Structure formats: C-alpha cells, structure tokens
Amino acid sequence: MKLQIGGFSIFYILYFVLAIGLSIQLLLDNKTPQSTFAWILALFLIPYAGAVIYLMGGLNWRRRKLVKIRPEEVFGERMKDLLAEQALQIQDSYSQIGSDISKILTITMKTGNAIVTQDNTLEIYHSGKEKFERLFEDLESAKDSIHMEYFIFRDDEMGNRIIDILERKANDGLEVRFLVDGAGSRPTFTRKGRRRFKKSKVQFRNFLDPANIITAWLINYRMHRKIVVIDGKIAYTGGMNLAAEYITGFPRFESWRDTHLRFSEGGAVVLLQSVFIADWVNSGGIIDSYGQYIDGHACDKKTNRLLPVQILCSGPDSHWFSIHKLFLTMISNANTKVMIQSPYFVPDESIAAAMETAALSGVEVSLMMTGKADKYVPFWVAHTFFEPLLLAGVKIYLYEAGFFHVKSLIIDDIMATVGSCNVDQRSFFLDYELNTVMYDQKTAMRLAAQFEQDLESCRQFTLEDYRSIGRLKRFRNSAFRIVAPLL
Which of 85, 382, 483, 484 is the most buried (most CB within 10 A)? Predict the structure, then answer.
C-alpha cells in the first residue's frame, strides 16, 4: 500500500511541514539575510538532507544550551566581585594602559568574563618535540592529579606512551581524568586503546560522543580545546593535539609547525583547571565540588612575576562569541602591525573587512597560513578571500616547509593571543575554543620574532598568483565557499 496524499508521498508532506517550521525558526533567529536565505534554500532544494544539515549546524544555540555549564558563566558567578574590581581598575588606568589595550581588556571581560591574572610564568614551544618532551617530564612528576583534554588523540607510539603513564599514575592513586572530543578522536583513537582505558583506573569521557544516540546529532559541534593540568600547578594549552605527527609530520608531511604554551603556577593555571572541570561535567563526568578547583584569591595574587594573562572561552552556545570579538577588536585597534597565523582561513565578513580596513589605513597586515593542505576544501575556499585582501595591501604568506598548524594573532609587538581558534567560521561560531590573551611586550616580541623566522619557510602569495588561477579552479573554490560556515 502506497502512503500518498494527493499524489505526494506522506514522507514528503511531513518533510515539507518540517521545513516550514524550521524556516519560521530561521526567521526568528534573526541571522543575516544572506545566511537566512541560504538555509531556507537548502531546506527546500535539498529535501531531508537540508533539514539534517540545518539541525546539525544551523541552529542558533545562543538561545538554548548545548552544555550544562559554560566556563565563562562559572567565572562570572564565582568571581563576580573580582571582575567588577578589575573593570574599575581598567577604567581608572585608562590613560596609563592606553585606549587600545583598555578596549581589548574590557571587551574580553564583558564577553567572556575573562579574569586578568598577573602572577604567571610562561614557556612557549614552537615544535612538538620540545613540547612533548616537557609534558612527559611533568606527567612523570605528577603527585596528585592529571587532567587532560584534547580534540584529537591518536593511540600511536606516542599516544600509547601517554596511556602507559596515565595507567601507572592512576594505579598509584592519582586522580587521572582524560577527555577527548567524540568526533575529533573517533577515527584516530582505536577500540583497542579505548578498551585499555576502560580496564584501567583512568577516568575517561567523550565530549558529545557520535556513538551515543542522544548526542550523535550534535556531531557538528566540537570540543576543539587542548588542555593539560597537572597537580593544579602546571598547565598546557595551545594548538597541538596528541599524536606523533605533531613531532614528525609523518605520514603526510615532512614536518609539523605549531605553537603551545606551558604555565607553571599562576592564576592562568587555576582558570585552565576550571575550564577542564566544566568540560568534564558537560561530558557526563562527576565532580563532588566545583569550588575546590577555582580560587578567586589565587587568580588575584600579586607577585613579582608580572605577565598579565586572560583565559578566554567561546562556543556555539556562547552569548557573545567572545574569541571572534577578541580577534575583531585586536585587528581594528592595531596601530602599526597585525600578524595572523592560522592553518585555515575562512573568515566571516567582519574579520575580512577589519583586515582590509586596517591595511588601507596604513597598518602592516600579514596573514600566514599553510601552503600544504591537510584538508583540500578549506584550502580552496581560503583563496576566494584573497583578492580583496591583496588589493587592500594585506600580505599573504603560504608556509611550505611542512604542515602549518599555528593559531596566533599579534598586534603592534605589544600583545598577542595563542590558542585553539583558527581564523575560520567553524572556530568562531561552531566549536568550543580556548585562547590565551597575553598583555606583555616581551612575549609579543618573542612570538613576532618566530613569525619572522617562519617567513623563511614561506612563499608570498601575490595578486598575480591569484589572477593566474584558472577559471575552472576559481569556480570550484567559489562553489565550495557556499558551505564556508561548516568548514
């Protein structure tokens, strides 16, 4: 028996009703006219699949909540008085700090409740080899707890070495928690490796596990943060995941260039611990008392170590998309120099316009991205943004010595941010990200010096290079740009 009404399949009629309902929701979300129109077209021109894609990546989660608790909410609730005090200090010191830095400090505090900590000791690693050698030392020296969170974990030779250490430490009675993104680590973390964790005393969780029928439809929203906190005293964060390729580049690349940070002591460690705990709870983990992991006095501690740092988080259900606001404000307030490093470059209109405006106003704007693609579609789409940037005077460099995975932004050699956030719409609006913001000239100049060193491995991409791209390739690149918000 055919299920039809007036010659139409009952399933098609039900889908049509669903598409109308989702279209109404789209209009209520007040997205940009271009985005609204594109999604409505997808709903009606791509039956069934259009609705699935919208539910996976088009919903406005700022009106809802994907997770139980957001780190920025925790900071705002538990450090309300400190935030208010710091806001007044910034206002009172406006002339001393400078208007540009004051604006950036203020917007990060308002959009992400980003506490300013000053008593921080920082080490910067520009290669996987030096970062992981130090990490192994710290893991072996752990006395009380190990908390690890990664987007990608590969149980290769290095990954299994990590598992060995964690198993041993858990057997010794340490509190060992290990969190991975359900989608990011699904193809790289084998069943054998997962079974090892399940049999051990290591507490293991997936964030939005695609194998879980309840969360599988949320696969498009990913936990992209990289955090390690050891004994509540040492913390790592930055761009590197856990895999041997971050040291060797093998098997696809001859090398891998990345940047990662290590904090020892300091308020930044406390805040990174708090972010991990929030992500752990959001992944179904159990915490007896959140308060034991966040100490406002530790975050406001004054010492001789003066390295002002903010830990800034954002996600698809963040109210302000704070890291996007940070990038936009930094670029817009730069006076002499903007240095951007990102493996992928799929900006929204506001970031692209800010870069063009800065360059046209006389600021030296440089963009460095990978010249060797690990994912071809984002690489192709990046080229569709190049022409107006080049015409405005932005300098574009493609890194060709291996794969380039650095995520940093430096302005005027006076401040910088390093983290997990790419300069793309996925990182800004769909993924859970974390960036460290550092208001320190010495640190900014160290990162700027590394940028200059990276230039030696780059090819400058010019307007002539862009115009030499064939029509067919330009069409391919532009066709894929339609799905830019999902890349």
Answer: 382
